[in-house]
Give the backbone structure.
Amino acid sequence: MAFTPRTWVVGEVVTAALMNQEVRDGSLATFQELLPWTPLSTIGSFGTNFSAGAPTPRMRKVRLGGVEEWWFEGRINTSSFAAATTLTMFTLNTGYRVASERGFTVYASTSAHYPVRLGFLSSGAVTGSVPSAAGTTTSVVWLDGVRITNPLA
């Protein structure tokens, strides 16, 4: 089906509800914020040797076209990140946990230029690991761009 933009009628009152609607690929989709951007420190706890960086690591829950998504952004600092070991960087409280494991590769500050393998576990653990070749040089993990679609499935 072809994309059809919404046609506004002269004199029509533009409301928030109308502005939250958009036409995507010919089907009506809506945007709904379920949880505003919330610092991770208020919905869980940091693991040993991990802390909030700047910008503050945070989470947002939204619904796009009826599908729930969890968005993450910000920086997690670490004072010690052992290579070739899966570490718990953060633990999310009940209500903020995925139903099944999800995995991502994210940017990290390492002198060897290795990314971090990021995992979200149903236990609430947010884990990270780098290969042994990365050594112990990882000092920052970025959450920017992490999007979990349908996290409760």
Remarks:
- Residues 30-149 form a domain with the Immunoglobulin-like fold (CATH 2.60.40.2460).
- Confidence is low (pLDDT under 50) at residues 23-27.
- The longest strand covers residues 27-39.
- The first helix runs from residue 16 to 19.
